[in-house]
Sequence to fold (406 residues):
Amino acid sequence: MTFSDLGLESGLLEAVRALGYTEPTPIQEQAIPLALAGRDIMGCAQTGTGKTAAFILPALQRMGRRRTIGTLVVTPTRELAGQIEDVARDCSRRTGQRVAAVYGGVGYAPQVNKLRRGVELLVATPGRLLDLQQHGDVDLSHVEILVLDEADRMLDMGFWPDVRRIMALLPEKRQTLLFSATLSSDVLRHAGPLLTDPARIEIAPSATPVDTVEQTVYPVNGMQKTDLLVRLLEGRKLDRVLVFTRTKHRADKVCRDLERSRIRGAAIHSNRSQAQRQHALDGFKNGTYRVLVATDIVARGIDVDHISHVINYDLPMNAQDYVHRIGRTARAGATGTAISFLAAEETQELRDIEHLLGVTLPCEDVEGFVYAERVIPNPARAAKKPVRTVYKGGNPRWRSGRRTAA
Fold:
């Protein structure tokens, strides 16, 4: 199938060709015709599958040219808002529609000025959008299409009350498109009543990592995590590495420790200003920083190609966050590697992840690394769900340290 087969108009087809897209991805192939027909959609697709264009292209076509906001895209983080704005700008170059993004962490007045000049497609984070509305600086009374992007993350981050307040400001008669990396029971319970007879599109099973990610667990004493990270970065070819920590304080500390080992890295988390976050992300993209250290709250906004490795310095408290983390690598059919450090106090988190995936993840040691006392999971443990192969290859090595069944 080609983009021409999806029912897109000539201006959008020109934009698609200019962007170098040749064939629609599965989510685009299924979502675009339904969206053009005016259906509400509940879509689930892994990261890197072209989800943004799947709602931007039909929205631009359906609302046409106007001087009011016809499409509103609500998304949880500044980084995601900026990325969606970039895609929408690229797609609208041939159609002439005006696009803007509004989000916190940057000046309020410049965003108001953009809105006053006229915007047809608005991308917004919930907090800033409500601020603008309360001050009378945004008019949502003409919105015909609402897009809720990363709905599961908005729910996790506590934005759902804001989402409901935003929806109450919109015309009752509208089209609603909801997209999410997972369609958990919580998402379905909260979002289901907000859509009218939605078409459900599920490109990949909820909470299932891409098959091309090699996943390995490295048992280690919690006090040695940084030493092990430095050893991996020094001794292996890890080109562009995304490291996840559980807290903002630890992300900053890991960055400082890497700098002392002469490894260029930057931290990105919610305590950083928008300028600092953008600087870190740009530096990671252009190779200035080899390592980006992040927390889960900004994970969905890290849209960078060719990440070779994701390293879970800390395992996430929520098993589904593990899926979102490792989805930053192996994007759009590429291969990637996910390494998880496992301290003694994180064995329950590992059990939860394996239960969610239905996979027993292999454990390995780094050859030559001198381990302090640690806990190693029982090699005979088994996932509770039917096993689905995710990692192939690699021989577990049980050479050093105390071995304890977890």
About this structure: Residues 213-357 form a domain with the Rossmann fold fold (CATH 3.40.50.300).
